[in-house]
Amino acid sequence: MNALRLPRSPKVLLGAGILLFFIIMTVIGPLLAPDDPSATSFAPNLTPSAHHWLGTTSLGQDIFSQLLVGARATMVVALLAGLVATVLSMTIGITAGYFGGVSDDGLTLLSNVFLALPGLPLLIVIDSYLPVGSRSNAFVIGLIISLTGWAWGARVLRAQTMSLRNRDFVEAARIIGEKRYRIMFSEIAPNLLPILASSLLFTVLYSIGAYVTLAYIGLTSTSVWNWGTMLYWAQSNNAPLSGEWYWFVPPGICIALVGTGLALLNFGIDEFINPRLRAAGLTSRQRRALGLPRRVRLGLTPVLRTGATKKTVSAPSRAVSP
Amino acid sequence: MSIKRLDPAPMDEERDSPRLVMPPTTRSEFVLDVKNFSVDYGTGDQMVRAVNDVSLTLRRSTVLGVAGESGSGKSTFVYAMTRLLRAPGLISGGTVNLHTTTKGEIGEEVLDLVTASEKELRKIRWSHVAIVLQSALSALDPVVRIAREFDEVLKTHRPEMSKKQRRERAEALLATVGLNEDRLDRFPHELSGGQRQRVMIALALALDPELVIMDEPTTALDVVTQREIINELQDLRSRFDFAMIFITHDLSLLVELADEIVVMYAGSIVERAPANELYEAPRHPYTLGLLNSFPPMHGARQELTGIPGSPPDLSNLPIGCKFHPRCSYAMARCVHDEPPLVSVGDTGRSVACWLHVEGAERPVPVELSRRVTSSNTSDTGGGAS
Amino acid sequence: MSETNDSLETIVQLSARHLTRHFTTRVHGRFATTKRVVRAVDDVSLDLSTGRVTAVVGESGSGKSVLARMLARIVKPSSGELSLEGTPIAVGARRTIDYASKVQLVLQDPFASNNPVHRVRHSLERPLLLHGANKGDVEELAKAALARVSLEPPERFLDRYPHELSGGQLQRVSIARALCVRPSVLLADEPISMLDVSVRLGILNLLRGLCDEEHLAVMYITHDIASARYLADETIVMYAGQIVERSQGTALVDAPTHPYTQLLIASVPNPSDPMSQAREKGEHSTFAIADVGCRFAPRCPYAMDVCRTTDPPDFQVGEGHTSRCWLHANEPEAVVEVALPERRREGETTKT
Fold first, then answer.
1. Would you call C231 an interface residue with chain B, using a CB distance cutoff of 8 Å?
2. Do C115 and A3 touch (CB under 8 A)?
3. Cβ contact, residue pair C114, A172, below 8 Å
4. Which of B161, B170, B350, C8 is the most buried (most CB within 10 A)?
5. B75, B56, B49, B55: which is closest to B259 by C-alpha?
6. Whole-angstrom Cα distance, residue C137 to residue C125?
7. Residue B247 phi, psi (nearest 5)
8. Can you give the pLDDT of all 385 residues of chain B as single tens digits?
9. Residue C104, pLDDT score
10. What's the CA gap between A112 and A271, in Å, rounded?
11. Which of C96, C97, C117, C125 is best to mutate for the A interface (most A CBs within 10 A)?
12. Residues B284, B349: contact at Cβ < 8 Å?
């Protein structure tokens, strides 16, 4: 799809690189883990060493293994929740925007309710009603997170759909007799692709935060390893106070890095949607090569001066005295 | 570069005899003198030349019409000329000499807009050169009343005026374009398209400029409104005596309005002629095609053909004459060599077409020396009836 | 008001009677919001027949686009009747796929009416599939449709994106999209106004050819009365939702009888006769529409007392030529000091 030709700025490349690294970690992390993350088979509170790259917990578990194994659960839940939330927001947003009227009012009310309700307390309430067994189920957790994360995207998509709804190509599709769902998902949705992608990144970011938070406050099964449960155990064993930084810093850095990667990619999409953020046409290197000012000012078209075209006429002949 | 004082200078060496010493009261007859002006978009292998080596002059108090279709570079040309074109647009050569005069002073100042500094440009914009754009709705600030637009312009350029004087001047300006003074307290969205365009024209005239540039000012308007605005403009010009560059794709409108017309195609001037002559006897096949593209309002209906093919794609221009793929008179030479703009006749006309160059392969077709209009032909039984 | 069928071959395909569409807009005042009814289209009757081009001329706000959308049935009329090939259609009923394959509409701006994310192939194959073509045939049919609008060779255009084509080519794609379902009525809403001057005639000639060779009933909507004169078998002038003048052929352009038509014609840039321009002064550019009486009265230089109180009916002013103006009544109140060309005082037709 040529609509997604992202600008290849260093930002986007860095973001994509970071994400790729963590996705690979998701896939092969558990295979690479040197030890069973739950096995309490080592001496407690070891500092990082060649055997235990990130030391051990106070129960004698290998922290590096926990980090690698935990990546999968964290990323899977985040991606799943992000995907489900994006599909939800797309369906609800485009439907509301396209139909307008009563269905719009209803769906807008619904998304406003979800926007107004604070997400985390809602999550905690829903989560606490779950049977204990399903708390370890990544699917269930992902679905619950997506339920609290779709509303913002739906609003954005609704607004965009409303502006597309009256465009001529939508009318043209109606004239040839296209069905409504096809107009929404085959004519309008592809035009929203950059926004959908941005919304997906945003919800994935939100989901990681939500999942880690739930795990950190102990609301998911503490026997499933993810970065949140690592923080939970580190906290409950007073790791920050006893200076065991290798226990809680690595998962924290991983979370921050995934977030950074997502945000960098999002910047790229933003530049794509909003050409005003792009450096207008000429790159700074081109400018320097041409001897043009670095910044473009409005109302001052740059002038290319090569050796051949000198300021010939700008110094017209002086008066000939009579 | 600072503005040059040139009180006793003969301005145009080519036209005036160099031996002739001009008295110190002389002003040149031109207000604008463009030489070898080129504009590119982008650089390197993505470079597209939008305006190619354009030279023209504009006499004081005359109307120059610039006609052309999409991709002809007509808008790029005037935006770049006034240094308003945004990057990636880039002026890649030429000079644009603006001859400005000041009331009560003899002589004139000449400023090359291409080398002018931002400060110099700010000084001449609006007070000497004013621009009216196609979309008046986007040019007017939607949250500001009309009165404030006038106020700000006058405040900036005429700081000696009092608030009351500014208001009076704004009312007078609106009156000159046929609007009631109560419009001053309206917001742009409360006015119709034609009224907004009138406000734009009044704003452009606020500082009594010598040159007004109009970029398709009537394209978005209905015919009746367009007619009113055109009549208004002709009226204003006879009263305020400014020179005007009028850009449009509507050649028939230009024939009516302009003294002289320049036809652009693919970034170059292909023909330049006094308006009546261009209408009655176009020299360039493209001009002829354009004129024949307007169905006539009189005479028998007959099938017209327009110009085959599509307007040029600037990033993929043919070699030789840019028009040759669409030209029904194309000769072998047109495919290889680009024709220069040469003068024909003695009325200051010029045309860029090999047909009019000495030693052309074929004689000049009769329709390129005198146009056959529908009113003097019989119905050929074309398909349009 | 029935049409004079000047040839036996013309069959009325789509006929509209008393088509009306009112919009209610809210006017936000300082203290309260009041509702105002805008009569976008008011009591318009017309027939579209095979092999004939009916031109509808009007400025923006005249209701010509709403009329086209009502005929295409993507806007529901407030009242009135429609019949396709003699079969009446319930006004409130949903538009069926059958109707869509009989009556097609081409929109004004080719750049906006082609989805930027889909190739030309998509714009042609979707309607074909929707209207019952076999999956295996659509490619050939799509190519045939492109060839019909002179986009040759068709293979070169099928896989292009809209931004890769010029305006004229894209408008041809739009026409091909409308034609590929084999409609009998083609409504064209300002098909050339967004195009370059040099390619406009190509589109007009294409429409003319479709009408002459394939016997389509064409409605050509425009603000450009010169192009209507070039193309039309019947010309209709609309002002503020009403038909103010209509004639067979170009009688209306050559000898306009309604003051609005005269104003329109005088406004057209006409280099061959620059002295004949109507010179109006003052603030006329407001699209002033009267609520009572003749809607054009506030702008009309010949307005009489009766014009400000009573809406004029259609008066016959010539063979197949009617004018909605009191100047052409049997007993005009005032002696008309204006020289209206070819003014005939014949019997008044029934007012509907």
1. yes
2. no
3. yes
4. B170
5. B56
6. 10
7. -105, 130
8. 444 444 433 333 333 333 334 444 566 788 899 999 999 887 777 788 889 999 989 998 899 999 988 888 888 898 888 888 877 788 888 889 988 887 666 777 888 888 888 888 888 888 888 888 776 667 788 888 989 989 988 888 888 889 999 999 999 988 888 888 888 888 888 888 888 888 888 988 888 898 999 988 888 788 888 888 888 888 888 888 899 999 998 888 898 899 999 999 999 999 999 998 898 889 999 999 998 888 888 888 888 888 888 888 888 888 999 999 999 888 888 999 999 998 887 778 999 999 888 777 777 777 777 766 544 443 333 333 3
9. 93
10. 28
11. C117
12. no
Q: For residue B23, is the peptide bond before it cis, meaning its omega torsion is within 30 degrees of 0?
A: no
Rounded to an integer, the average pLDDT of A172-178 is: 90
CA distance A174 to chain B (A): 27
Report the residue from C196, C208, C282 with minimal CB separation from B178.
C282
- Could you give the CA distance from residue A153 to residue A82 in angstroms, rounded to a whole number? 11
Low-confidence ranges of chain C (pLDDT < 50): 1-8, 274-285, 332-352
CB contact under 8 A, C264 and B252: no
| H-helix or E-strand spanning residue A274 | none
Task: Report d(CA A304, CA B85) in Å as an integer.
Answer: 13
Return the DSSP state at A239: T
Selecting from C59, C224, C279 the residue whose C-beta is nearest the C-beta of B224 gives C59
ipTM above 0.90, yes or no: no
* Beta carbons of A247 and A55 less than 8 angstroms apart: yes
- Nearest to A206, CA basis, from A260, A154, A145: A145
Q: Which residues of C touch A172 (CB under 8 A)?
A: 107, 113-115, 123, 174, 177
CA C244, CA C241: separation in Å to the nearest integer?
Answer: 9
- Radius of gyration over every alpha carbon of chain C, rounded to an integer in angstroms: 21
Q: How far is CA A231 from CA A135, A246, B101, B135, B143, in A?
A: 17, 11, 77, 59, 53
Assigned token pair, A258: 């995934």
More confident residue, A276 or A145: A145
Q: What is the pLDDT of residue B4?
A: 42
Give the residue, C117 or A49, on which the prediction is more confident. C117
Residue B285: per-residue pLDDT: 92
Out of C74, C101, C116, the one facing A171 most closely (by C-beta) is C74
The helix (H) or strand (E) run that includes residue B37 is strand B30-41
Which has more confidence, C53 or A118?
C53
Q: Could you tell me if C260 and C323 are in contact, meaning their C-beta atoms sit under 8 angstroms apart?
A: no
B-chain residue closest to A297, CA distance: B86
How far is the first Cα of chain B from the last one, in angstroms, to the nearest whole number?
Answer: 63
Q: What is the per-residue burial (b if ≥16 Cβ within 10 Å, else e) of B303-333?
A: ebebbeebbbebeebbebbbbbbbbebbeeb
- What do you get for the CA distance between the two ends of chain A, in Å? 73
Place of tokens 């799943």: A80
First to last CA, chain C: 9
User: Number of B:C CB contacts under 8 A?
Assistant: 136
What pLDDT, in 10s, does the model give residues C88-116? 988 778 888 889 999 999 998 898 899 98
Residues of C in contact with A193 (CB under 8 A): 117
Neighbours of B, requiring at least 3 CB pairs below 8 Å, are: A, C
Are B242 and B63 in contact by the 8 Å Cβ rule? The answer is: no
The verdict on a CB contact (< 8 Å) between A319 and B13 is no
DSSP-derived secondary structure for C140-208: HHHHHHHHHTT--STHHHHT--GGGS-HHHHHHHHHHHHHTT--SEEEEESTTTTS-HHHHHHHHHHHH
Contact A316 B9 (CB under 8 A): yes
